[in-house]
Design a protein that fits this description.
With 102 residues, this protein is mainly alpha-helical. The protein has a domain of 43 residues. 48% of the residues lie in helices and 0% in strands. It contains four helices and no strands. The longest helix is centred in the C-terminal third of the chain and has 18 residues. It is flat, with a radius of gyration of 26 Å.
């Protein structure tokens, strides 16, 4: 006997729940039978933090300056083997993601 843990679509459309601090403040389901969504205070805060993090510059300013200085001085060394390996890895990944022709 196989146990199927999936929720049937008819039941899934009627399920509405909220977790966190705002769980007791969830509004009643609408009479029209349409789905509804209630965001808790913590989920709203998480979305705000995600948008703030998206605008943060992730570059290391110290490293950027040291590379600029090495380029200006002519002392910047390129490891051709590392560049080639990363180029091959990037190409493999691109080919894996490409849709296959039938």
């Amino acid at each position: 006997m196989k146990i199927d843990k999936r929720i049937p679509p008819a039941t899934a459309a009627k399920v509405s729940s909220a977790k966190g601090k705002g769980a007791g403040k969830a509004s009643a389901s609408p009479a029209s039978g349409a789905d509804s969504l209630t965001l808790t205070e913590s989920s709203t805060r998480i979305r705000a933090l995600e948008s703030q993090l998206a605008s943060v510059d992730v570059a290391d300013a110290g490293k950027v300056e040291s590379v600029k200085a090495a380029l200006a001085n002519g002392t910047f060394a390129v490891d051709a083997e590392v560049v080639a390996d990363r180029l091959i890895d990037h190409t493999k990944e691109t080919l894996r993601k490409r849709p296959r022709k039938k």
